[in-house]
Amino acid sequence: PVFGPNVKANSDSTTFGQHEPSLAVSRVHTNTVVVAAKDYRDGNAKHVWIYTSTDGGATWPLNRQLAMPGIPAAYPLQSDAVVMARDDGRIYVACLGYNNSNGVFITWTDDDGVTWRNPSVLISPVDPTLDDKD
User: Fold this and answer.
1) What local confidence, expressed as pLDDT, does residue 123 receive?
2) Pairing with 69, which of 1, 48, 115, 130 sits 20 to 30 Å away (CA)?
3) Which residues neighbour 74 within 8 Å (Cβ) at sequence distance 6 or greater?
């Protein structure tokens, strides 16, 4: 493979970091790349954001960057995103949502990140003390 320059995948202009990124490449449209990460742009609060590129990671358009969709207010913090691509082109993003109760949430796209399942689906409530990798 030929690797180009290091390109920033998100539009966050704060000095807060993005941590624990996960990446998947579509198995159908190999120029589609999805990254999800713990993003602190919202007042330094932990939220998972999804970034999608359709040109192999050369650009990351603003209209393809979004917070994990439809997480209920009972789970104001998110962490530990995982991205996975299926053979048929569907791409999943899962994350842990937590506060006084915790759960694993999942969303997906079937159209290379144009739309995402909203709201994200609660897969399983988990131990309320858990706030690490789903």
Assistant:
1) 82
2) 130
3) 99, 100, 101
Comparing C-alpha atoms, which of 58, 118, 116, 56 is closest to residue 90? 116
Strands ordered across the beta sheet of 102-109: 77-85, 91-98, 102-109, 121-126
> In whole angstroms, how far apart are CA 94 and each of 1, 7, 27, 89, 112?
28, 24, 18, 16, 16
Contact 75, 97 (CB under 8 A): yes
- At residue 55, the pLDDT reads 94
Q: Which residues contact 53 (CB under 8 A, 6 or more apart)?
A: 9, 31, 32, 33, 34, 35, 59, 60, 61, 64
What pTM, to 2 d.p., does this model score? 0.89
Q: What is the predicted pLDDT for the residue at 134?
A: 47
Could you give the 3-state DSSP secondary structure of residue 33? strand
Alpha helices in the chain (DSSP H): none
Regions in the chain scoring below 70 on pLDDT: 1-3, 125-134
